[in-house]
Specification:
Helices cover 41% and strands 24% of the residues. It is an alpha/beta fold. Helix 1 packs across helix 2 and helix 5 crosses helix 8.
Amino acid sequence: MLAAFVAVADHRSFTQAATALNLTQSAVSMQIRRLEDRVQAELFRRSTTHVALTDAGESLLGYARRILSLSDEAMGRLRNHGIKGRVRLGVMEDYGTHVVPPLLARFAASHPAISVEMETGLTSLMPERLGEDFDLVIGMHAEGSNSGQLLRHERAVWAGSAGHDVPDRTPLPLALYPQGCLFRKWAMDALDAAGRPWRLAFVSHSQAAVAAVVAQGLAVTVMKQGTFPSQLRPLSEKNGMPGLPVAEIRLHRAPNAPVAASLFADHLTASITP
């Protein structure tokens, strides 16, 4: 009944509404009469040449559109509810720890038969493994990349201990990730450009390990502003640290990815993109 009502309201014609709905004009008229009986109000003013909404019809139209939209959403969820499959996801450790889990919880509620296998670590080479090892990769890139789908921007921020004054040391001790990490390159390049002596004091694949070393006052590092660890403090030019670029977080999809991966990719895009 609501679909017939919206169609007539949009086309201002019972004949055109019937064509759009692939129904007969008499069927549409019957649906409108049933709806008017249900709401106990006249919804259209009819003449031989014109159909217009009444005040009651105008009041109902917005609700009708919302109800139909919600119905479509519910049916889509139910259709996808039974889809089974596996999604292989590659992602940075901080996103795998802080960003993905709450999104996965919401996704699992509507897709309980889809499982997600997640590998965390440096993502610079993960897109090359799409199809073979991964269905999806959430990777970090320098600004201006045209690879993958842009999800959001992340500012690179110097991080130091909350209880130790490390930035005054010379050479500056750094706790960074292995070669291939964009933040490692940016940190070294920024310090070199500023003429600031530095030394590599600690290297690890684990962001948690790097953050723990920094928290002890043994070095400084670079973290994303959006996932900045609470046990550290941000450092800036006021602390004598050079500025750092902005990174892009991008989603990469394997060619011919399974339906389960496409559904999860759409969920990630809708949830992460501002």
